[in-house]
Design brief:
Distance between the termini: 50 Å
Radius of gyration: 13 Å
Largest sheet: 5 strands, antiparallel
Number of strands: 5
Strand order of the largest sheet: 1-5-4-3-2
Length: 99
């Protein structure tokens, strides 16, 4: 029987692999669906070796701004954006929308 922790990290590795080919915000939110609506996702592997930002850089995304490694916005090749806040993923440039 597989170890629960091994199963968890295998699922995270699969998500990271998929993020490396994400073309837009819809792809990211589909890959990291959290059940909290179409404009939100969650990355549970933030304590691991791989990061969302590294995977998205591989897919051609660029950093729009960053307050830290756990709070930033990235833009996809198609111009759509996601904001990452401590594992939570939101569609768009959340800080710009709230100011």
């Amino acid at each position: 029987m597989p170890d629960t922790l091994d199963t968890f990290w295998a699922a995270i590795a699969e998500q990271v692999q998929e993020l490396r080919t994400a073309k837009n915000a819809d792809d990211v939110l589909r890959i990291l669906a959290s059940g909290h609506g179409p404009d939100r996702g969650f990355f549970a592997g933030s304590g691991g070796d791989e990061t969302v930002s590294d995977a998205l850089h591989t897919a051609g995304w660029e950093l729009v701004w960053a307050e830290s490694s756990i709070y930033y916005t990235m833009r996809a090749p198609d111009g759509s954006m996601i904001t990452y806040i401590e594992g939570d993923i939101h569609r768009g440039n959340t800080p710009a929308q709230t100011t």
